Amino acid sequence: MRLLIGSAAGVMLVATGCGGATEGIPVAAPSTTSVMPTAPANGAWDPCTIPDAAIEGAGLAVETKSSNLVGDLPISEDWMTCIWTNPLPTPWYHLGIFSSTESLDYLRGSGRFGQFEPIEGLDGLRFRRTTQYDEVNCGVAFEHPNGVFYLVLDGFLATQPLGDPCVEVERLARSLRPSMPSSN
């Protein structure tokens, strides 16, 4: 229970400032079909549309997919979210993907994230949270014509990380990039 509460707190820290929860928005059903790799014209791209095969291929546990760690309501009305954990026997993190019609400049200017750096061979930027609470985290942000999306790896509280979170989130970003909107 402590592990779940700590993980939920980490995701909520990521989403803080993104807007309030909205009742009545449906949660995306698991997808086993191909993904539309562009954002819809009328809103943010839904990261829960990434095919299960791509999620499994990246080394995440398909059955852990959720639009929120606690309850059925979305984390924010302004951001689409989807969250997975790495599989048993040794889960040490969850990966959240957040998508909005905001821009990359919005993320940079929010004050919540910093240390934006280009990643060799990838069209995204690595970043960290500006406020650190001895937590294990790292993220990768991508801009596309209809907005921005980012991946954030958060370690579970009281669980020793089994690797460098930035190396792991970059690996996940490279693996999942073909199933996400292009930057063109």
From TrEMBL:
Family matches, as Pfam families: DUF3558
Entry-linked InterPro entries: DUF3558
Recorded superkingdom: Bacteria
Protein name, entry field: DUF3558 domain-containing protein
Annotated source species: Rhodococcus navarretei
